């Protein structure tokens, strides 16, 4: 009986640890949401960057001390630096797939408990926040200039989480135009393999790509050339046109 109680307590502690990680992520996100509401999206993104650069090394150093791994001054585990380029790319791909999977499960949960319209409304609003946030992170991470034009946008699009799981192509018809096409899309290909029609992502895509582009350079104008439920050729799923006036 004593062993059972000890095992039960240990299992409960493990569950609390897992839930503590989840609550930490949720609380961090709630802070961002409220700062955005009170101070605006741009200020929230700037303060999130400052907060992350301070909080992340502290949290990782504490976890490393307990779990037995070393971190540098930025909070990056030394073991991660020992991985090969191939292993790091596999890790990045796995993170990207997890991100997309969580997005899909959220959508399915809302759709199952309410309806498709409500789920699409939630996901579109979510993308209106996430897309500029991702663009801001990329611009900061790879040190792109503000108002960097189409060159900066093309470089930023190459660093999205989507890039690690989908395939895309670029075209430059002229110096003031950039065409971006998603030649392979994990979500749509999985649906097609199950005999399902393309997911109608055009409404979310318009929000996603326009807010992403404006975060890189407010002067960029975004136009959807085609995106499901629009018909498209076999060679790509969606196509977007970015121009500078």
Short key terms for the protein model shown above:
single chain, 245 residues, alpha+beta, 2 domains, 4-stranded antiparallel β-sheet, 8 helices, globular
Can you put this structure into words, describing what you see?
The protein is of the alpha+beta class. It folds into 2 domains: 1-82; 84-245, H-NOX domain. The chain is built from 8 helices and 4 strands. The protein has helices at 2-39, 41-67, 78-81, 85-113, 116-141, 149-157, 186-193, 202-216, and strands at 167-174, 177-184, 221-226, 238-243. Strands 1-2-4-3 form a 4-stranded antiparallel sheet. β1 (167-174) and β2 form a beta hairpin. It starts with a helix and ends with a strand. The mean pLDDT is 95.
SSE layout:
Blueprint: H1 2-39, H2 41-67, H3 78-81, H4 85-113, H5 116-141, H6 149-157, E1 167-174, E2 177-184, H7 186-193, H8 202-216, E3 221-226, E4 238-243
Antiparallel strand pairs: 1-2, 2-4, 3-4
Helix pairs in contact: 1-2, 4-5, 5-8
What is the domain tally?
A: 2
CATH topology of the largest domain: H-NOX domain
What is the strand arrangement across the widest sheet? 1-2-4-3
The proportion of strand residues reads 5-15%
Number of helices: 8
Q: Any guess at the CATH architecture of the largest domain? A: Alpha-Beta Complex
Note the run of SSEs as H and E: HHHHHHEEHHEE
């Amino acid at each position: 009986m004593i062993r059972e109680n000890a095992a039960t307590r240990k299992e409960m502690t493990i569950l609390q640890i897992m839930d503590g990680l989840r609550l930490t992520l949720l609380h961090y996100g709630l802070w961002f949401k409220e700062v955005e509401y009170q101070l605006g999206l741009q200020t929230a993104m700037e303060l999130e960057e400052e907060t992350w650069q301070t909080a992340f090394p502290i949290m990782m150093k504490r976890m490393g001390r307990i779990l037995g791994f070393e971190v540098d001054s930025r909070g990056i585990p030394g073991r991660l630096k020992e991985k090969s380029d191939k292993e790091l790319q596999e890790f990045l791909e796995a993170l990207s797939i997890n991100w997309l999977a969580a997005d899909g499960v959220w959508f399915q949960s809302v759709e199952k408990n309410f309806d498709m319209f409500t789920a699409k409304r939630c996901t579109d609003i979510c993308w209106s926040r996430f897309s500029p946030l991702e663009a801001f992170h990329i611009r900061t991470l790879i040190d792109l200039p503000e108002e960097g034009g189409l060159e900066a946008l093309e470089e930023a699009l190459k660093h999205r989480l989507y890039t690690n799981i989908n395939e895309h192509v670029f075209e430059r018809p002229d110096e003031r135009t950039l065409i971006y096409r998603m030649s392979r899309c994990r979500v749509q290909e999985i649906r097609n393999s199950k005999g399902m029609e393309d997911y109608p992502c055009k409404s979310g895509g318009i929000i996603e790509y326009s807010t992403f582009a404006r975060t890189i350079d407010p002067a960029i104008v975004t136009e959807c050339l085609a995106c499901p439920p629009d018909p498209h050729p076999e060679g790509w799923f969606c196509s977007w046109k970015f121009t500078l006036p």
